[in-house]
Write a structure and sequence with these properties.
The structure is a single chain. With 357 residues, the protein is mainly beta. The protein has 1 helix and 18 strands. It has an 18-stranded antiparallel beta barrel.
Length: 357
Amino acid sequence: MKSRVAILIILFNMVLDADVDFRGQLSLQGSIWHTDGHYDGNVAAQYIPNLHIFRERRPGNIFDIEASVFGGVYYEDSALKDDFRAYRLNARYTTRQSELQIGLQKINFGPAQLLRSLMWFEREDPMDPLNIAEGVRGLRYKYNFMNNSNIWFWGLYGNNEPKGWETFTSISDRPEFGGRVQTPVPFGEMAVTTHYRRANNGVKDFQETRIALDGRYDIFVGVWFEASVQHQDVASPYHYTEMVTLGADYTFGLGNGLYILGEHMLNRFGNEFGTAEQDARLSAIMVSYPLGLFDTLSGMLFYSWEIEDWIQYFSWQRSYDRFVLNLSLFNFPDIPIAPGTTRAAGYGLQFMLLYNH
């Protein structure tokens, strides 16, 4: 009891002598789409306040606390729904070369942007103007070496929902852990990542291990790859999942600069390493062009080679200091074909107004 009181006193004294930054993002949106011969629609309001408390103990050494919640109210299918949950809640200590963070936080890595083989811990939708990315509960340590190499370690605990590409939930009272080593190489950088956990498929517990290799290189164009292998000691539905993403991007000197990015992903599933009892192939392209200081046009196309269908998404965005207007047109197939996407099947449009303070 005395130790808990002492910790609270230390934290209270730190807050009194700390800098406090309070920000938030309010979004209002409305969507209408056509599917199965009829029109549907929804309206929504979302607010994400963020409290940041930080103190520099000595030059280069900073202790900070981040607290943020997600709140949303939606009207759809003649019903009013709400969604309120913790979004970020963590404490962090950084030095000139290291960072230690504990609590509800975002952990992501890898160079891919649209088709991410290394989407292990969140499901960020590349077509979401809000860039919402769920966090995980755990501890993460990162150390940066003087030659620009870095090493990560993390341990996760108490995460009760599937994360990233996961289908089954981790066992909540069993820790999961992993790490990553990233180092410079000629023309770019490469990294090796691994993760281990215990999960349950509804019938029994099983062990899951992942290992991945990724790299990015800047030559004439930017090129990158992500390759991962996942093994489960229970076939759920297969023992092995192998994923590879290849990507490239380039900005053409046309007008204000035409940016084009393309990625291709191959997923293979089998009970033996290197065999494919089932596979899936996805291709994606993103094009972006700034009309001026405030306006940007962009488009994304995703194509599934198995179901031979497309996701089509086009948007216009105008950005001010605090306000962002976004108008998008979309067409989604009946079967979801891209990771992280959440829109209903059919074609339609969405208007969104964002206010940042």
